[in-house]
Amino acid sequence: MKITRIVAISLTAALAFGCRYDAPEEEQDPGTIDPPAECTPGVDCEEVEVVANSVLILDDSTEEAGEMRFNLPSAQPSGELSVNIKVDSADEKLSYITLFGSSTSTSNAILDLKMGGKNSDYASDAGDDETVIKLRENNDSAGNKVEDQDTGLAYPGSEWVNVSLKWGAGEVIITLKNHASGEEIGSYTSPMQNVLDVEKITFKISDSGGVTTTDAPYYIDDIFVYDADGVITYEDSFNAEEFTKTYSTKASVVLTDAENANPVDEDDGGEEPGEPSEPSEVFENFDSYETGVEVSLANGSAWKTWNTGEDELGAYALAEITETQSFSGTKSLYLFDGSTKTKPSAALEFSAGEATEGSVSFYALLPAESEEEGTVKNAKSTYFNIGTSKDNSGRYFEIKVSGSGKIQYEAGDSDPEITTITAGEWVKYELSWTAENQVTVKINGVDFGPYEQIDTGLTGGTPTQFTVYTGDNSGNNNTAYIDDVDSELF
């Protein structure tokens, strides 16, 4: 086993060879890792075989935590971090992944993800060889400490896992996957602690008052940062003995070949060493369709639409692709009810037909009710349901969101209120149902329910599709934007 204490950390893409360069010794800031000068293979440096390294973060100091931080080339208002990590769940100290803006003060963090096992502060929540994830909460207005937010996420401490943090529109989606199998462990959506553009990312373990208690508490590998369009803006897979990236560090940060998420001596038919994990994908984000085309007519689309086009009074209802708004990428589905005679609907069927259990998630931006030139806009609701058809008789479970942001579920004469959102912002929704006919509604990562389907009075049978519509048959001027529709059922 070879362990080299870092003087610099770098990305080398998945190449067969790299360079070793013996730079002249210079006095450096002990808290900074700087890259070496460049060299030409075969001229002023020798070719060496690429090694599969990772970064081990330790805390061997009672004065500071173990930490590695890097700055993005440019601030990212939305994007995604993908990183492979391995945490020793037996360590007594917590490990962290933190997104920052320009300030690295904890109170200014965009998201501060904390991980700990059975011997840490999270002992009551963690099982044997298990690491649980929580989120730091800022102190309350009186300065009192607030308990960390539970995410319900946990993973084996003995395995490499991929962590994806996808941020934008005031929230961060946390997704965990087993790195070896690619199987999703779970996901959680959290509001940003501070709504800022991401500029710095930090990996840390322990604190300034103690030290880590195991030999290899926190490995990281394969860092990839994507912008809103899925373009890589920063990457580092540590597959060389020399380095090109600059990092700020505290305590002990070491480059090691003792562990690697993608060992070069294993040929399992999977990813090559250093190959990035793909950014998390959704079934439908509408970016592949031509702008201005009705979604059911777009090339390659599986969507169906009803009650669109011009009515007998010359008014329009639309269900088309737009670039005006989007949660991810550049496009979304635009629904507009400009008719007092009808309302536009769009539906996506499940590929295998009836689903006795399952879930559908999506993002929606529903403009707030407002007056414009004497006309009330978005005075009507937007509806999302699972069922067997677009008709009222085909609904299995339905939620509606008003222009004021009130969310209710359909239950006959009196529709119970679920919660209230801020209209005019992107919000994530998820509808989940079980074989026992219980439905849970998740709004921005918060569960509501479960609700008994039989209590709604809706007569739709086992769901076969997801449907969305906006407005009604009397009002007009209602607008909705839909993006990132996802389900294993499609």
TrEMBL record:
Gene3D superfamilies, per database record: 2.60.120.200
PROSITE patterns for the chain: PROKAR_LIPOPROTEIN (PS51257)
Protein's name in the database: Uncharacterized protein
Region (Disordered): 260-281
Ranges annotated as biased composition (Acidic residues): 264-275
Source organism per UniProt: Psychromonas marina
